[in-house]
Predict the structure.
Amino acid sequence: MNRRAWVLLSGLGALLVALPAFADSYVLSVATLILYLAFTGQAWNVMMGFAGQLSLGHALYVGVGAYVAGGLFFHYGLGPWAGLWIAMLACVAIGAVIGFLAFRFGISGVYFALLTIAFAEFTRIGFDHLRWTGGPGGMFLKVAQRDQIDLAHFRGPPEMYYYAILAICAGALALCAALLRSRAGYYWRAIREDEEAARALGIDTFRWKMAAVMISAAMTSVAGVFYAFYYNNLFPEQVFHISKSIEIILGPIIGGVGTLFGPVVGAALLTLLGDGLTELLAAFDWEVPGVKQVFYGLVLLVVVIFVPNGLWPPLARKLGLRR
Amino acid sequence: MSWDLVANVIIAGVLTGLVYGLMALGLSVIFGVVRVVNFAHGEMMAVAMYAAVLLFDRWGLDPFLAMVPVAAAFFALGYLLQAGLINPFITRPEHSQFMLLVAVAIIVVNALLIAFGPDARSVQTGYQLESFAAGKLLFDAARVYAAGAAVAAAALLFAFFRFTLTGKAVRACADNYLGAKVVGLNVKHLYALTFGLGAACVAVAGCALSVLLEVTPALGPGYTLLAFVIVIVGGLGSMSGALVGGVLIGASEALAGLLITPSAKSMFSFGLLILVLLLRPQGLLGRRT
């Protein structure tokens, strides 16, 4: 990163920190959603963008993270500070099982992607029949008091959730930047570009692919815990659904797979365009369900066809952040 | 639980499974030749079902007759989709192809939602309540016709690949892309042709299924997943594998619905998918590459 990048990044950071001071609750909720999607995209990017392992079932980790932390709070009043670690542990264990089975049996490419879908769907239907989490009827956490902050139980006004997801996002960005510069980052990119060659160079590809899956799962579980406490209601049909998995990967694909800021740019662009369109349609009294999604599909189609590497690389060049 | 109940459930499952098998056959043929996984497969199926419902509503055309025009239209659409959108993507990375087809799928599902609304639509014909009996065994007439149409369409496709020169050329493309180009085959045209044929399979399966089930826009993603399960179990790229996989999944889902609970039946299929992927990734009838 050059000096210009640092200036821009700290400017953006300052703007985001100051945002609640002048934004109304609607803007704040949109900003929270953008940051949430930027974070989940970042987490997915570790696996696909860095290590080249295509997961189409990331909603699995969001859902398990949300249900573990939410369930512990619902049944035992255990706040997310303890629940987070248990949720993370559960997700890392699931990621490890999927990764171990897939990589041990030499499953890659399309087959790996289908395996991740299969596990996510399997779990979705499983949760539909799980009494402890309320089954298909859903699980409802006690809604937060909006005027008082209860940090121990992570209940409070929207500003608190905004700052929490902002901090999580900033942490993820720093973590990913560090990962990319670490030994793991170089090994992952070698594996992504050519696994055979990487193995020939003596890289333990099994071990590093496992590391990517487990780190990605751990990060995504944090998003799940946030989801549970921010939205307060959980339905298997919603959190585990394949459309959620696709929503997670739209941001990084549009922003740029394997780049540090791609997921952020993609999430911001998609959410702003989507919300802008919703407003516009409401203004014209033409609120038909599905219009927004068709629009998403068209944006995705255009980006995938004409800017296959995502919007961030050309944008970074335009801003003079990269040669 | 009596044995004839179980037998009747299995019969219904096998007959429906043949229709699913034809749908999956389309996916398998496309993957086997073009090497692109059609993530919009189930969505195309939903479009075919709506086409059958519309033709029935407007002109009272029986879905089994509607198959012919719908399949022809789907062949043309599939050809154009491959020639226009997918052909430039065949050398791109897998996730790029995947996103392209996901984009198509998202557009199709929601266009259906805008056009027809979320409510279920169906076809009412006289034979939907009839059934053939053989002793205590019952064969629903609609299911028998649907399965028969599926088998006939699959047989036509087999014959095309086996006995025609064009079919042979398509198989040559599938076996060796570079070799096919070297001997002067128009690979892009053959790819588009294959996608068109895969789409026509979906059209026939969709029309047949419209007699058995109600259609909603939300059906699409579920059928895409079902088609994946079937082709992986049968062997991705294997033609007979798709039909066998369809029958197997149809029967086992019907049985799981009877013995465990109907809402858990797909869990069974996904479990089977995971097992097959791990233990025999080339599928039951697939060849190891």
